[in-house]
Specification:
Blueprint (H helix, E strand, L loop, with lengths): L8 H20 L3 E2 L5 E2 L11 E5 L2 E5 L4 H9 L5 E8 L11 E10 L3 H15 L8 E5 H9 L8 H7 L4 H7 L3 H13 L8 E5 L11 E2 L2 E5 L1 E6 L2 E8 L4 H17 L9 H10 L3 E7 H9 L17
Parallel strand pairs: 1-5, 7-8
Antiparallel strand pairs: 2-4, 3-4, 5-6, 6-13, 8-11, 9-10, 11-12, 12-13
Helix pairs in contact: 2-9, 4-7, 5-7, 8-9
């Protein structure tokens, strides 16, 4: 146990310089910086994200795992393109690349299609990553990546097929069961992304519709979503969507999330009705990205533990 900070002064200066680059980039593009609450009355239903509840004199609230819902409410209220830099919180995320509290950059561009928001994320990432050599960008469809590295079609493979492809042991098979999306996530992390070249950016796009989250389905191929992730080597640094604007479809997905959480014995948060009201009022066609600045800083500084780029790690990790 030590009282000393995890990040040294050199790394702190590198973080400050990176934040300057972020603000310069969006200022030049005419994107407005906003500030939304860290503490909100509702949180996400995503089964893969555990929010941190807080008891206040006004009732239960949650440390926000993302500013997404608040930022989309701003867009529905006729804000222009916007971005935000600030803390995000996710319970149970501890490790070399994960922290309970981390710094997230999130931005939204009105009228952008999938390729435009991908280009935006790649351009910014290449501006931020300067000391770590990047020798180009690889672009690969989610299905093609699985076929290339696992000889598997992720759109049609069963949970058993995916478990066999990753040579899962009996204990893991029992733990995950027949949850196809959990198997796809495991296969992506352990077999697919681990094969991405360390000296290049990789754009993985068009995730299965079952993993659409808050992304719109591709109008020309509704079995996939207009969603992408951006990697440096095996490290995911950004997740982006062409945003779903249909309030009825979003409610259906929230209900589906809640059923899945209930079945898994997870807490089941209420649906954020204000967010759905914003969608009903008219969210403009837009695309957005969430980028983990701590991870980007780790990569650029050649560090391998997120605690080395944070002044003090969150919770008991400190």
């Amino acid at each position: 146990m030590s009282w000393r900070p995890g990040a040294d002064v050199v790394t702190a200066r590198a973080r400050a310089a990176m934040l300057d680059q972020v603000r310069d980039y969006f200022r030049d593009a005419g994107v407005l910086e906003v500030c939304t609450p860290v503490l909100g009355g509702d949180s996400v239903t995503d089964p893969n994200v555990e929010s941190i509840p807080c008891e206040t004199t006004a009732g239960r609230a949650y440390l926000q795992p993302s500013p997404e819902y608040f930022m989309k409410r701003l867009l529905a209220a006729e804000y222009p393109d916007i971005y935000q830099v600030g803390p995000a919180f996710r319970d149970g995320e501890n490790g070399r690349r994960h922290a309970t509290e981390f710094t997230m950059l999130e931005w939204y561009r009105r009228g952008f299609d999938l390729q435009q928001i991908i280009d935006d994320a790649v351009t910014l990432s290449r501006r931020l990553i300067t000391r770590h050599s990047l020798n180009g960008v690889d672009d690969i469809h989610y299905s093609a990546a699985f076929e290339q590295h696992l000889d598997l079609d992720p759109l049609t493979a069963t949970a058993q097929d995916i478990a066999d492809a990753v040579s899962a042991d009996p204990t893991l098979r029992e733990a995950i069961g027949d949850d196809r999306d959990a198997w796809l996530d495991l296969a992506l992390a352990t077999r697919v992304a681990s094969s991405f070249p360390a000296d290049r950016l990789t754009v993985l796009h068009h995730f299965p519709a079952s993993q659409s989250a808050l992304a719109r389905l591709d109008p020309d191929a509704p079995d996939v979503a207009e969603r992408f992730e951006l990697f440096v080597g095996s490290v995911e640094i950004a997740n982006g969507f062409v945003e779903l604007t249909d309030a009825d479809e979003q409610r259906r997905r929230f209900d589906q999330d809640r059923r899945k959480r209930r079945s898994a014995g997870q807490t089941v948060p209420a649906i954020d009705e204000r967010f759905l009201q914003a969608l009903e009022s008219g969210l403009p066609e837009c695309a957005g990205v969430a980028l983990g600045l701590d991870r980007v800083l780790m990569i650029d500084e050649g560090l391998d533990d997120i605690r080395q780029v944070q002044s003090f790690a969150s919770g008991r990790q400190e």
